[in-house]
Amino acid sequence: MKLLKKLLLVSGVIALATGCSSDPAPVETPAPSNVDNSINNNTIANAESAPSNDVAEPATNVEPIKLTFWHSMGGAGGTALEQLVADYNASQNEIIVTAQYQGTYDDAVNKLKSSAISNSGPDIMQLYDIGTRWMIDSGYAVAIEDLINQAGYDLSQIDPSVLGYYTVNDKLYGMPFNTSTPILYYNKDAFAEAGLTEADVPTTFEEILEVSEILTKKNGNEIERYGFAMHVYGWFFEQFLVKQDLFYANNGNGRAAHATAVEFDENGGGVAILQGWKDLYDSGFVGSFGREWATTRDAFTSGRTAMTLGSTASLGDIELAATFDVGTGYFPKVHADDPGGVSIGGAAMWIMNKDAQTEQAAWKFTEYMISPEVQAEWAKATGYFPVSLGAYELATMQDHLEQYPAFQTAIDQLRDSNGSTGALLAVFSEARATIEENIEKVLNNTLTPEEAVSDAAKVINNAIERYNLANGIE
């Protein structure tokens, strides 16, 4: 009997608050929800080593194979995704894919767990990056590299910069699909008005403060325009750790083995981030508009702040909404000598643990979705990176980059990141919400940076301990 049919949900439920990873529609800032993070104890030991099924015998049934694809793309991204699925169905007659929107990624995870008992879940699932550790542990999905090897697919066609996050113990588990990184956005008109040029785009916290003072506009005691603002977001905290080349969690950032505790409270990285963040905010030249990306994005596009941080996937929406020329820069460092890059966000395609014929059909669909032509269209429609290297060779993609030169910054930053990858943590949703809560307490002078880091570490470590205990991880 297939592994998926054997899975039972353990009775101990770890309730997780929200936090996702990419940006347009529901990808990076979905509405809060709870995630049941428990899995069957017996799946952990075998999940990473179990190969996919043997190659199926040639099908004799002329009826097309029907696949269900769960996704979490709303808005324009959802419309683009539905069109890609329709195009795939029209391109051949062997497989019919039905795309089904499941709400936020957290919503989709809970629905997957509920469907596991009756084996009524999807055949393919789009899952956010921070769900990687949990999905591997659960055994719900096969390692996509097994299917890639069966098919003889050349993985070198995929940008190696995006493969690292989903590669665990030298095996690729999920196929990157909608991929993004954070970048700095700035108002070129405001820069010119203040006598600043592209050379003045800040690259560190210290430079952000210096440039923000120049860009800030006051009317008496009222701030008409802040120099800079960033929303309170756990993803940024993680990226600032990556910039410092410091681990979020122990055991090699949860990649050498399951994380048993965080490290940001001991390596100095967490305090450096929160102290720097507070110094920016306390200057009076930097605004804070809360946790919601849409609020800070609107403040930027309406001219209430001259600079902000956001996902590369937001570039299209920002350029459409802004009444000024938009520039982009690398995601800033905490310190000038920080050696790290950035880690990708977004989501991957996961193929569920089903029969061999279904898995192979799911791979054929996935292969189509990561083809150069499809990835070029996806990038143009959404602002996500093409994961296919061949997409960049196509005239349509080159024309797009010429039309939106600001997107080139994001590509260059990704290539310059030297394979930086973020942490693997099964309780990342709760961890992000905890970090955000403590950032707010620091900005509100409720806690010092040291106290906030210590408190956050305790909460996250407790969540890790509960998860590991419930799932037999030592």
Can you give a write-up of this model?
The strands form 6 sheets. Strands 4-3-5-16-8 form a 5-stranded mixed sheet. A 3-stranded antiparallel sheet has the order 14-9-15. 52% of the residues are buried. The chain is built from 20 helices and 16 strands. By secondary structure, it is of the alpha+beta class. The chain has 2 domains: 3-180 and 344-404, Periplasmic binding protein-like II (D-Maltodextrin-Binding Protein, domain 2); 182-342 and 426-461, Periplasmic binding protein-like II (D-Maltodextrin-Binding Protein, domain 2), CATH 3.40.190.10.
**Tally of contiguous helical segments:** 20
- The appropriate CATH architecture of the largest domain is 3-Layer(aba) Sandwich
Structural class: alpha+beta
Tell me about the largest β-sheet.
Answer: 5 strands, mixed
Classify the helix fraction into a percent range: 40-55%
Number of strands: 16
As a whole number of angstroms, the C-alpha radius of gyration is 22 Å
The CATH superfamily of the largest domain is known as: Periplasmic binding protein-like II
What gross morphology would you assign? globular
- End-to-end separation in angstroms reads 28 Å
CATH class (first level) name of the largest domain? Alpha Beta
Average predicted confidence as pLDDT: 89
CATH topology of the largest domain: D-Maltodextrin-Binding Protein, domain 2
Estimate the strand proportion. Answer: 5-15%
How many domains? 2
Low-confidence stretches: 1-35, 41-46
Strand order of the largest sheet: 4-3-5-16-8
